[in-house]
Design goal:
Blueprint: E1 8-14, E2 19-24, E3 29-33, H1 34-39, H2 44-47, E4 65-71, E5 75-80, E6 88-90, H3 91-99, H4 101-114
Antiparallel strand pairs: 1-2, 2-3, 4-5, 5-6
């Protein structure tokens, strides 16, 4: 028997704080900044079409979440106020982003610095 996958029980957009708050049935709650979600978008624009093709986005510190759109019963489309709307964030991917937030954010900041780019 395979273990059940984490399932969101509540998703809230905190517009003023520019973050997404996601509660999972595992008891975990993740506070995911809009900037983090934007630079880790699962879209081909950000992730590319294969290994090693990820684009490091700069200048997203002020990005916010305009709205969410449910996609079936497996994902949510996040529409950002910078016009980006092609990423489908599956429940598994949102959970992965929450569990690995510290490591992924540190890697993003390192990649920005290595390229001489800024969050602003």
């Amino acid at each position: 028997m395979t273990p059940s996958r984490p399932w969101p029980t509540e998703i809230r957009v905190r517009r003023a704080a520019r973050r997404l708050e996601v509660d999972f049935d595992t008891g975990e709650t993740f506070l995911l900044p809009a900037e983090y979600l934007r630079v880790e978008s699962p879209s081909a624009e950000v992730q590319g079409h294969g290994a090693g093709q990820k684009t490091i986005l700069a200048g997203k510190a002020g990005v916010g979440i305009a709205r969410l759109e449910p996609v079936g019963n497996y994902a949510v489309r996040i529409l950002f106020d910078d016009g980006h709307d092609t990423g489908l964030y599956s429940w598994d991917y949102l959970h992965e982003l929450g569990r690995n937030q510290e490591r992924l954010w540190a890697a993003y900041l390192t990649a920005l610095e290595a390229r001489g780019l800024s969050r602003a």
